[in-house]
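Follow-up to my post from last week.
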Amino acid sequence: MIDLIDTYWLYFLVGQYPHGPLGGLALTLILAILGLLFAFPLGLLLGMARVSPWPCVRWPVSALIHVVRGTPLLMVVFWAYFFLPGLTGQNTDQFWTMLTALVIFDAAYLAEIIRAGIHGVARGQTESARSLGFSYLDAMRLVILPQVVRNMLPSLVNQFVSTIKATSLGYIIGLTEVSFIATQINTQVLTRPAEVYLLLGLTYFILCFGLSRFAFWLERHHQQRTMAKAHA
Amino acid sequence: MIQIEKINKWYGSYHALVDVTENVAKGEVVVVCGPSGSGKSTLIRTLNRLEPIQSGRIVIDGVDAHAPRVRINTFRSHIGFVFQQFNLFPHLSVLENCTLAPTRLRGLKPSEARDEALALLDRVGLAAKARAYPGELSGGQQQRVAIARALAMRPPLMLFDEPTSALDPEMVGEVLLVMRDLARDGMTMVCVTHEMGFARDVADRVLFMDEGKVLERAEPSEFFARPEHPRLRQFLSDIRTPFSQAA
Amino acid sequence: MALPYNTFCMPMTPLFNLDLLLTGTYHDWLVAGLITSLSLTGISLALALPLAIIIAVIRLSPVKALQWSGFAFVEAIRNVPLLAHMLFWYFGAPEILPAAAREWIYARNVEACSAIIALTLYTAAYMSEDVRSGIRSIPRQQLEAARALGFGFVASLRRVVLPQALRVTIPPLISQTLNLWKDTSIATVIGVTELMYQAAKVESASFRSFEAFAFASAAYLGISLLIAGAAGWYQARFPVRAT
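User reply:
Got it. Predicted complex:
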């Protein structure tokens, strides 16, 4: 296995760059980071729409979120792959296709996290903000959402881990992310598929396990801080 | 200042407020007391429309609180409400808690709001804690900040919903002191409380509620010395001698 | 199976040809794909659930070594994407199996076998977490009361703790089943002829991408709604009783 790592490590990490487009683990990470980054504002809007007191906003958004969450990500990728070129009028390359699918998918899941976060903030906070005379939206913006974002940091990290794993589906549309690269390596080496794919698994494991431990630490740290405050 | 006209409220089939009618004059301090579930918290929450009513009218300073077209946010900004659970904003400092509404709703400049807030915090005895966060304060301190926060909007009316019920006994006094000073300065106040000492010393009128109805209303001297309604007599006797012959 | 880049760039035809989906070869292909997807789900679920319970009990055992191996197993599986699991079991695993096992698998449907193994392990890892939380949510006093009556550890679990834990655990388990149903779509990548594969096949044969994927989407959504409905029904019918 060591010689495999020795020969292919650069290809694994960055794909064909600089002699071609960026690929490998670097591409996986960039895709995941951008996906979550773009999904966040959208998820925030959708989450707020989900808890809004106006049914004409709440119902369509809830329906949309249920549809996205009931559909496999691969399906969303395929829809993006086949219909994005028609929508945008130009050839959409795999990166943007995958990114679009990831943003839509992540936004739906983030919306649910935010909805749970909003429900988790004590009702008294909304009441006291409204009693001071703030409108519903102002109360959300100034009082509720700042607390929600602080509380949902561990969930955000977990969603990031999910997104990293989701980037692997780029394989199916030929995106040169790390799983695709691993298969390319396998077709070159041919005789040691178990080792190649074990290495792939190990890479994901180190990345994702590390991040989920970080999320776990965040949650404990946050709990300790709120505990300390309660006993002040 | 407040006219409550025959209001009724139901929670599903439970009749929480039954034909309640009261008037509160400007500068009056009214205390509402009664057993748990009597509807006193519900009543005070209908005054700033935290709870809806199904029939009747509540008019505060000429504004019908529950009319469909009323501008509810403006209405609420003229009423100070102090909650049992304080409900300070944990992500803001004490000072920021008190300047948030004045800067955004009264249009004050940040420096003006800060000066006013510091003066109010001084009045409740917490100017030194201006930069602290709610999580670092005791319950009594948090409640005093909550009162300052409500006062920062310069409301003509203050509503208190069991302000000391969530406090440890040794902190009740500091909050009641602030409320008494407020009353002496002429603030119109409606307080739901179990603190009979406060009612006796500070209130202009005491109301007794049970099962959604106001059963007795009187000045404190009459209320405590010569209670008329049998259930009020029972309530007062239960408070005075809690370990009496229930067996 | 990886789609070649830029297969085509098809302007959407104005006519939605419903006949395509209701009768004919393409319809048969799609239905066959749906049945395969459902079979994958059913078999994996049947295998994953007992495995999940075993893993959960192992992680709750008082023996540290067992706890740690259970933890390592679950974390190793959960932190690797399902696609990578499928690639491993399809391309990598046969190499390390003894020759006899390899022949046995290749005589049958190696794609489906790999997919089922990957799906089972992946789902069991997640489900074991839910089962473990469910068991831990039952107050310790229940176990103590059972032991005080004279039941052994396993018997106490079986007769007193697990039945109560099950009621709490069923909603998250149904939620994992929903994930399993959606995850079967990834089996496409190793050539299992499930719904996604068939939809792509219909698309490349007929260029009717919209109809093919609409059928697949409707099927996925329909079954998802059924599963979510089952969860809702269960929670209404068997609400968690407060202790």
